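seq:
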Amino acid sequence: MFSEIVTKIDDFVWGIPTMVLILATGLILTIRARGIQFSKLGRAFKGIFKKNEGEGELSGFAALCTALSATIGTGNIVGVGTAIAAGGPGALFWMWFAAILGTATKYAECMLAIKYREVKEDGHVLGGPFYTIEKGMGPKWKWLAILFAVFGALAGLMGIGTMTQVNGITSAVNMAFSNSGTAFVIGENTYSWATVIGGVVVTLCVALVVIGGLKRISAVAEKVVPAMAIVYVFLGISVIIMNATKVPAAFVLIFKSAFGWKAMAGGAAGWVMKQVLDSMRKGIARGIFSNEAGLGSAPIAAAPVQTNEPVEQGLVNMTGTVIDTLIVCTMTGLAIVLAMTNPEFFAQYEAAGWKGVELTAAALSWDLGGDGVSIQFLLMLCLTFFAFTTILGWDYYSEKCLEYVTKGNMKVVMVYRILYIVAVAIGPYFTVTTVFDIADIFNGLMAIPNCIALLVLSGVVAKETKAYFDKYPTLQ
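struct:
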């Protein structure tokens, strides 16, 4: 009953109006910024390691890693699997489409966050969509800024920051240690000792790091994020190389599924439209879950960067969408679709009802061969690191949202930290579909006020971008 209600709310929040708003925001910003995600992508990657100078608390690289620590998580492994299971292989196409437009969105929201950030008396910096809305659109829109901040805190507490991440970790641990035995049963759900122990260990680790605050989170992210991304990308490249002859067929399947061409041949027009909409909705929603472009979270990490040039860090942060979706998510998606091109695997998939990490693990095992045990353990390790850093990054985002709403009341923040740790502790005991639907709901609610602000301030984006490139026509 609860899961059905959540699904209906998710369908409503991620209806056509929300999808149009997000895609239109990306398209308009692409036009206003003159296709910056295409023309300046090389310059953006070069700027990642540039030494920063100016007001702020973090280097540009540290800020990018903090943002990536929150984006590269279960969305890249579990989220892609759930998207393809629910929306078909075509969901991957819509993830790509949303990511291409979302790269311009990520640039704009991070640039504006630095432009409108606030440096407090004690020297620490606070910025994000809440200040972009309040300062950029004017004080009369502060209610919209508060709305965003409230949704941001709830998203961290009840969705993308806690339950989905720890649920993904414990699902992978349970898969790797499938013979760990039953710990207890609640209703129709059975929970293994692997799930219980994995959940307890993650909760304790989160509690230890969260208490340390921003600098400890960024220190962990700088070391873990690059390493874990390299390992997973290597795994994905191995899949593509070993199945190179099947890649064209996989792309054909993705495009056919995205537009319902296969079903159109059968004349099932009504079903075709539903399939395409499901594919779009799941692809766009999971894409935003993964790369967070338009969500308004990455600007919170970008705001404290030591720079006096907002455009500069906007360029750096927009590479996060490319790394997260167009590289890491694509590795997962192609592995799954490559396996699905085989009729035998597809029959097993339909019979078993695989989704999430189970589907990803089964596909990788099929693509690479072997008994699948080693793949399950490697996937468990990648997912654990991915999700753990995401939990840390979202605690930071949520706390900054609370700091804005409560005007820096640290007592409220400390209570929130305790609730955050509790949410991590109970996350393993929800179904994967339910936790992702809850996360999607709050993601959509965050994205709406953020995208409204980006559309209103698109002229500021265009003006700031032109002024910067007129001033610095070549990379400094």
